[in-house]
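REQUEST FORM: STRUCTURE PREDICTION
Request ID: SP-0412
Submitted by: Lab K.M.
Chain count: 1
Length (residues): 365
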Amino acid sequence: MADNQTREVRATAPRGTRIQNDFTELARSVQSSGLLRRRYGYYWTKLIGAAVVLAAAITAFVLIGDTWWQLLTAVGLAIVFTQIAMLGHDAAHRQIFVSGRWNDWTSMVLGNLLVGMSYGWWQHKHTRHHANPNKIGSDPDIELPVVSVTPDQVDRRAGRYGPVIGWILAHQGVFFFPILLLEGLSLHASSVRRVLSPEPLRRRAAEIAFLAVRIGGYLALVFIVLSPGIAAVFLAVQLGVFGVYMGMVFAPNHKGMPLVPADAKLDFLRRQVLMSRNVRGSRFLDVVMGGLNHQIEHHLFPSMPRPHLRQASGMIRAYCVAHGVRYTETRLWESYRIVTRYINRVGLGERDPFECPLLQQRAAV
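STATUS: Completed
RESULT:
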């Protein structure tokens, strides 16, 4: 145990041991335990509940009318939209239905129509992330438009934009969470760009139609119910809280974990576990983070239904210990401290702030 806030379960493989693909045995155990079976009752309850809560929130918005009290509604809607986006994430990972078609359309209804985020854009980006988490040149989640998470990004941006940007990069950890206020707007803009781009996209017409109804209808409703000044502030608050909530759910999962060189070859088990971080907490945290606090389990078994992730964590933790694979867990606020410290260290010019532990092990052999 590193300290009373952070726990890293470690076991060291004997020197000279050949790294093998140990995932097959684990997958067999998880499959036989029934943890990959669908949870239709759980998800139908979530789907119906999401529709009812969203309808109630919109009704309340209309009834409350043109008042600054609507800023509280904006916060509530931001939370509701984030929870719906997490449910769309589950569908996109085939956690809800056996049918891929049902999952796809569920993701589009939840993502495009209700939240305003393109399922096709998200799927393209997120699939690449799952294949190579934290791998330089392969994981789009470490190619952020503003924050630099690798030393090469710092060098490129500081050299291109001059000393002012260089100073900001050196203190970028301080700006990381405030920048998330713009993440909601960025997610919507990226979605629109993707569906209108010439790149291949399945069900483009449906995605465009859903986004048009969601974004156009939502803006029209806000400006019909609210006066222009209150409407503008309402949208800023809703998008800002939505972006911060989304960022605070996803940031602890991989930021500050080891980066993998572009030419490194890792087996599936180690590629997913060593680059991921779990966040310890209660079942309430599972709800708040949409199950993504069990990031290791999610990366190993993306189609595992959300309510099974907590149960699977004990089995997977023990398996990693037995096979010499570091399994990392922290408390939530400690994970944020690690993320900001890591980003600052990169900005200050440290070349290898967190090296890949498996590569260190290989070098020592």
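NOTES: The longest helix spans residues 228-254.
Reviewed by: T.R.
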